[in-house]
Amino acid sequence: MKKILFIIPALLLMNFAVTIDKQPYVLFTGKGVKTNYDQLLAEAKKADIILFGELHDNPICHWLQRELTEDMFAEKKSNLVLGAEMFEADDQIALNEYLAGKVSEKTMKDEVKLWTNFSTDYKPLLDIAKTNKLKFVACNIPRRYANMVYSRGEKALDSIDVEAKKWIAPYPIKYDSTLKCYKEIFENAGGHGGQNLPKSQAYKDATMAHFILKNWTKGKVFIHYNGAYHSNYHQAIEWYLKQQNPDLKIMVISSNEQKDNSTLDEKVMDSGDFIICTPSTLTKTYK
User: Which of 70, 58, 211, 78 is nearest to 127 (CA)?
Assistant: First the structure.
């Protein structure tokens, strides 16, 4: 009887442990094998370029971006360069002035085109650069020019000012409509807009790759923050980087949300070298 009384509470405790053992995130390799942050950091230290593919409203992604950036700075110091999709190339001067302490945060916010979740999610990264005197590169094409490609085709870029062309990758860009990242955009749109829609995305990817390479030199590590779609499956940004320098060591971090994140969904296997998997019920940083 004593044995039975002992077993029952033990079973209840085990059941309770299973119930409360919810993981806010699990790290997987691209092959779906569970791994850990220490291994991710060790591999990051070997890379030339890290493409950190986030889910824009996911707090775990933003927390890990900050943690990785601080840990990489501890290792690389001034050999670390930061950059992001979330800042457009024509805002670089205003961004530089803020980083150098020449203008206030309020002035920077008035001058730079900032995302809704800037204060919570991207300002901490920008301020790591400011505090440690690191370069932070505004890598994305100005949105108005990507919209021109979508609405009127890339020939429309011929009409823009010569100075403005400095904010875009040299064009016409190389474009492969068979790549998964662009093929899916075309198919999901039902062909609406023809190839101009995926090509406008390609101009973002090519421009981000252009500014990454423009600001990277051998011996440095460049961490680039972007939506996961811009680097998933080693395509998009990475494809453009490799067109110019096939010898680059590029590490891709991807992100995925699932109802149950204890195992990785097969559909996202190989989307990155490391995949951050979070529950789909995770609180969002913005709506």
Answer: 70
Q: Which domain holds residue 147?
A: 48-266+275-279
Q: How many domains does the chain divide into?
A: 1
Is there a contact between 223 and 67 (Cβ–Cβ < 8 Å)? no
Positive or negative, the Cα torsion across 228, 231, 236, 240? Answer: positive
Whether 229 is covered by a domain: the verdict is yes
* Nearest-angstrom CA–CA distance, 237 and 143: 17
CATH number of 249's domain: 3.40.50
Return the closest-CA partner of residue 113 out of 85, 82, 134. 85
Between strands 26-29 and 80-88, the pairing is: unpaired
Residue 286 lies in a domain: no
Residue 2, pLDDT above cutoff 60:
no
pLDDT of 33-67, one tens digit each?
999 999 999 999 999 999 999 999 999 999 999 99
